[in-house]
């Protein structure tokens, strides 16, 4: 077994990991990042579009794993999208250097200040809204679609129709910023560059146009010369040593998932940024298998960020319709957050299936009134999620209310085609919580009961943030790592 000593290890290359890497490298620290997924840029393997998923589209699966229409068989490969299946909920995550940024819709939404204050009463909201949020929007290259392009482009008929219908039903709409480069999209439309968003690419990766983390934070961190990223390196368990350092048991795999080498990494400082589910798995499994100390709050206050998918089919498809051509990048949302009875936010989502299916798709984001809990099952060696229908009652009520109101004003039916009676309570893109900031960690993400271990990812957010979460995850990571460096945690 190869045995390596390194000062600082970061596990995972999503938002939390990428921010930590950049700020530590800028401060002159040598950092090794371990990522179980593939370095796609280096591998040079093209991504598939939604209509024709190839081997790069799924993490070691025999069949494609989109939320619907999985008719495609695959050769198992360390693909870009993974799905974790629990009894009442399926959770999608990204795999590769860049984590979720490789597969997500790029929607870059800053949370409502009032809700941010409710969720994080101890954070200085003024500082977040004047400094951290603007900083991360800049680093992530967030931009907004040109209104004239939106008006003219046939690929955004689904947004225009969706907004018109929302207004007719009395809802308020909002423009949603994104990290996809809209200037690039305009060139795609004019056929000056290869197409990506206009060629149904998104959850299996974008070959062009999208500013995922490998093009922003991680690129900058690599440019310092202080970062080494090891891909296809999966951390199995963590051990705490007598001198308070950590030993990581790591498996290096090949692209078919076969073990290439068992490796051991010893580090003084460890940052867990494996994403909500990855971080909880590492902590709880290490606790169960080798007495790794964890605080009692680990696993508590988990939530799906109120994710609830729903859809509508048109009664008269030809009079409305969402268009045969659809961009994969959502730019419109319905903001019903201020309604005390039915507070929700929903994205007007594309459904680019290559034909006009006369169906509108919505991913609602609700409050999470009843939170779940994550534990570890030693027998099955996997996580158990304490989460069932009772956790999503209010979310379903909101979806029902929304669909009824939209149909009353515009016609149409609840979508029975896509999922269970038109309600996808089991579709989760935004797992959050389980290692809550200031509860399982100190005020800057240092894990309680540990001296050299930090958690910086979505698990710090207590299960809900009211909008798509990556802007918040990035801002909290910036805040934590800045303060941890200031406190000389990494000297
Ligand atoms: P993230 O999950 O990004 O990164 C964790 C990394 O750690 C992964 O690369 C993983 O492979 C790696 N890892 C895990 N365990 C490991 C181990 N044991 N060893 C080594 N590596 C390990 N959000 C948003 O704001 N706007 C949007 O439009 C969308 N849309 C969207 C669509 C889809 C399909 C998905 C799946 C998700 C979204 N999201 C989103 C959610 C967003 O992508 C998500 O919240 C963030 O990526 C979470 O960031 P983290 O830093 O927590 O982890």
3D structure, described in words:
This protein is α+β, with helices and mostly antiparallel strands. The chain is 25% helix and 22% strand. The strands form five sheets. Strands 1, 2, 6, 7, 8, 9 and 21 form a seven-stranded mixed beta sheet that branches. Strands 5, 11, 12, 13, 14, 17 and 18 form a seven-stranded antiparallel beta sheet that branches. Strand 8 and strand 9 form a beta hairpin. The two termini are 29 Å apart. It binds dihydroflavine-adenine dinucleotide (FDA).
Question: Any key phrases for this structure?
Answer:
7-stranded mixed beta sheet, binds dihydroflavine-adenine dinucleotide, 21 strands, 25% helix, 491 residues, globular, 11 helices, alpha+beta, 7-stranded antiparallel beta sheet
* Stretches with pLDDT under 50, minimum 5 residues: none
- Biggest sheet, open or closed, and with what strands and sense? 7 strands, mixed
- Please identify the structural class as seen in this structure: alpha+beta
Count every beta strand, where a strand is a DSSP E run of 2 or more residues: 21
Mean pLDDT across all residues, rounded? 95
Range of helix content: 10-25%
Strand content: 15-25%
Radius of gyration: 22 Å
What binds here, in terms of ligands, is: dihydroflavine-adenine dinucleotide
| Distance between the first and last residues' Cα | 29 Å
Shape: globular
Multimeric organization: single chain
Number of helices: 11
